[in-house]
Design brief:
The complex is a heterodimer of chains A (about 350) and B (about 280). Chain A has helices at about 55-65, 85-90, 115-125, 130-140, 160-170, 190-205, 215-225, 240-245, 250-260; strands spanning about 5-20, 25-40, 45-50, 70-75, 80, 95-100, 175-180, 210-215, 225-230, 235-240, 310-315, 320. With about 350 residues, chain A is α/β, with parallel strands linked by helices. An eight-stranded mixed beta sheet of chain A has the order 6-7-8-3-9-10-12-11, sandwiched between helices. A four-stranded antiparallel beta sheet of chain A has the order 2-1-4-5. In chain A, a hairpin with a 2-residue loop joins strand 4 and strand 5. In chain A, helix 3 (about 115-125) packs across helix 4 (about 130-140), helix 3 runs parallel beside helix 5 (about 160-170) and helix 4 (about 130-140) crosses helix 5. The longest helix of chain A has 18 residues, at about 190-205. By secondary structure, chain B is of the alpha/beta class. Chain B has helices spanning about 50-55, 90-95, 105-110, 115-125, 130-145, 150-155, 165-175, 195-210, 220-230, 245-250, 255-265, 270, and strands at about 10-20, 20-35, 40-45, 65-75, 80, 100, 180-185, 215-220, 230-235, 240-245. In chain B, a hairpin with a 2-residue loop joins strand 1 and strand 2 (about 20-35). In chain B, helix 4 runs parallel beside helix 7 (about 165-175) and helix 5 (about 130-145) crosses helix 7 (about 165-175). The longest helix of chain B is centred in the C-terminal third of the chain and has 18 residues, at about 195-210. The radius of gyration of chain B is 19 Å and the shape is globular. The chains are: A alpha/beta (about 350), B alpha/beta (about 280). The interface between A and B is large, with 43 and 43 residues.
């Protein structure tokens, strides 16, 4: 059972100091991650969803030690990542790779496609020139690109093709985990589907585990086995994807899902429109961080913070939510902010 | 000129750019109309010509491009007038006056060195003669109208002091300064998170109901269209490929391209309403 687990995260925290003025005096601390626990099995796709500032990108980067967490433990393949030295960490890097949002920014414009894809091979594998060229062709074919493109430059490619190149580069060292941060957000709608299909088929063929960071619910429902919903640096709900979409337990998840525009004119009338904006992470509200905007908040929600706890489980899955009154908004048609108007 | 029955009617619009010394149309034969109080979605991907079409309505096609054919009729008190025949001076009265504009990136629509209140008051004074003090009161009233929290206090804030959602509300307030009949909104919620997007879309609906505004909403997001619009025009490669009422389009899209766009939308989420 334990060797099925690829990545374990315990109590992960990331604080950023806030400084202001000429003397850069420290005014306070923003908790980008306020204690996150998570496990990812081999071959599993877990989606991190949430709005800007929820901490999903920070979590993705901390998990790979691209940024150093303030506290917590990250165990990858049974090994404590935070205990590794710089050179040891670099050697492990081939096992976890990343795909970024913007393929216009993440590819060096002066390098040919072939050398962009070959670069990780030079670092992580000792291959002869012929072997390397063959491997590049193979990788381009894997992501659905013609091997001839190896001689081109990024600006000659479309956005979708560039993202395929970025994926090929990530796959080059044969990683076990791919962290994809908004992999389709900068692409046109009709191209998104193709890239999502590619990621899905890669998972299947290569047995890749994936951490998908996205605010795009279409991407999430297409790829994810499980979904973690984040709010203000914490996971507020964790559930198998199908269960989550069918019946969200946390009121924030319910509002988030109901706010996603859906191509169905009949759904207009059943929307939960949250009042206000997410609170500042500099001064998170006491109690449940969501209570000031929550349609079903009670007095105790503003004094005590609900822990992320198991709400439902059966032999196959488990559902967790950080809410004292989970499931109240699930599938319920709430009009304009739960009767606030 | 004759009555057109619509507030705005674009007829057979053609916009061209010089390519190797020849005028090459990039928008061809585009016709669409917006009725009074109607909410019309103009949908397409990047490069489809949707934003260029909107810019042509405002007489703002970026050079060296230019309108090479068609008419853009706006209903005026004496009958419909062709905006393409207007002088720059006349167009200045139309822009921000008859037609208000809301853009995707509220950060760039405001001048960073002036306060929100000053800029909205200036927009008011550009179209309605009134003393500064009264214009400032009008700015406060507009900010209250778009439900900006603490509207009065926000008058003296600079653009960077507002969050993205607040700035978008402020930009809508500025678009309303000239008491327009038509709002041209180009991707007004694309830079916002979904919960804030939902608030802004609700605000546009309110304004439509309260002020009888017409809205031409330019977007790549069919979900946004389904939530707000009465009618949809789908553009691809400079041409209109489909036009339909919103219900009809989502039930039975005719053009394969529209179906492709629809297939890219979230589905599972829709199912939660069936419970």
């Amino acid at each position: 059972m334990t060797d099925k687990v690829l990545l374990e995260i315990h109590g992960l925290r990331k604080d950023y100091p806030v400084r202001r003025g000429l003397l850069r005096r420290r005014l306070g601390t923003v908790q980008a991650l306020a204690g996150v626990d998570l496990t990812l099995s081999r071959g599993e796709c877990l989606a991190l969803v949430g709005e800007s500032g929820s901490g999903k990108t920070t979590l993705g980067r901390c998990a790979l030690r691209l940024i150093e967490p303030t506290a917590g433990r990250i165990v990858f393949g049974g090994e404590d990542l935070l205990a590794l030295s710089g050179s040891e960490l670099r050697r492990r890097r081939r096992r976890f790779q990343m795909v970024f949002q913007d393929p216009y920014a993440s590819l060096d414009p002066r390098q040919r496609i072939g050398s962009i894809v070959a670069e990780p091979l030079e670092i992580h594998a000792a291959l002869g020139r012929g072997e390397r060229a063959a491997r590049v062709s193979e990788l381009l074919a894997t992501v659905g690109l013609a091997p001839e493109l190896a001689g081109r430059y990024p600006h000659e490619l479309s956005g979708g093709q560039r993202q395929r190149v970025a994926i090929a580069r990530a796959l080059a060292p044969e990683p076990e985990l791919l962290v994809a941060d908004e992999p389709v957000s900068s692409l046109d709608v009709s191209v998104r589907g193709q890239i999502l299909d590619l990621l899905a088929s890669l998972r299947e063929r290569l047995g890749l585990a994936m951490l998908l960071i996205s605010h795009d619910m279409a991407a999430v429902e297409r790829l994810a086995d499980r979904v973690a919903v984040m709010y203000l640096g914490r996971i507020v709900e964790l559930a198998p994807s199908g269960e989550l979409f069918r019946r969200p337990l946390h009121p924030y998840t319910a509002s988030l899902l109901s706010a996603v525009p859906v191509a169905d004119p009949d759904r207009r009338r059943i929307r939960i429109v949250l009042p206000g904006e997410p609170p500042s992470p500099l001064a998170p509200p006491p109690g449940c961080p969501f209570h000031p905007r929550c349609p079903s908040a009670r007095p105790d929600c503003s004094t005590e913070r609900p822990p992320l706890a198991t709400v439902e489980e059966n032999g196959e899955w488990q559902r967790l939510a950080a809410c004292f009154y989970p499931g109240e908004l699930a599938g319920q048609a709430v009009r304009n902010g739960g009767g606030a108007t | 000129m004759a009555e057109i029955g619509n507030l705005l009617e674009i007829q057979n619009l053609e916009i061209s750019f010089p390519v190797a010394g020849e005028w090459t149309p990039v928008v061809r034969g585009v016709s669409l109309s917006v009725g009074r109080g109607e909410f019309v979605g103009l949908v397409g991907e990047s490069g489809s010509g949707k934003s260029l079409t909107a810019l042509a309505v405002l007489g703002l096609v970026p050079p060296p491009g230019r309108v090479t054919g068609g008419r853009v009729l706006l209903e005026e008190p004496g009958g419909a007038a062709d905006l393409l025949a207007f002088s720059e001076r006349e167009m200045r009265r139309v822009r921000g006056g008859r037609i208000g504009m809301v853009f995707q990136e509220p950060a760039t629509a405001f001048d960073p060195v002036y306060t929100i209140g000053f800029q909205i008051a200036e927009a008011v004074r550009a179209h309605r003669r009134m003393p500064r003090r009264q214009a400032r009161d009008e700015a406060a009233r507009l900010l209250e109208r778009v439900a900006l929290a603490d509207a009065r206090r926000r008058l003296d804030d600079y653009p960077h002091q507002l969050s993205g959602g607040q700035r978008q509300r402020a930009m809508i307030a500025m678009a309303l300064a000239g008491a327009p009949d038509l709002l041209l909104a180009d991707e007004p919620t694309t830079a916002l998170d979904v919960t804030l997007q939902a608030q802004i879309l609700e605000l546009l609906q309110d304004l439509r109901e309260d002020l009888g505004l017409s809205v031409l909403l330019i977007t790549h997001d069919l979900g946004v269209v389904a939530e707000t619009c009465d009618r949809v025009v789908v553009m691809r490669r400079g041409q209109v490929v489909e036009e339909a009422g919103v219900e009809a389009l989502f039930r039975a899209a005719v053009h394969p391209y529209t179906r492709e766009l629809l297939a890219a939308m979230p589905r599972l989420v829709a199912r939660q309403s069936d419970d």
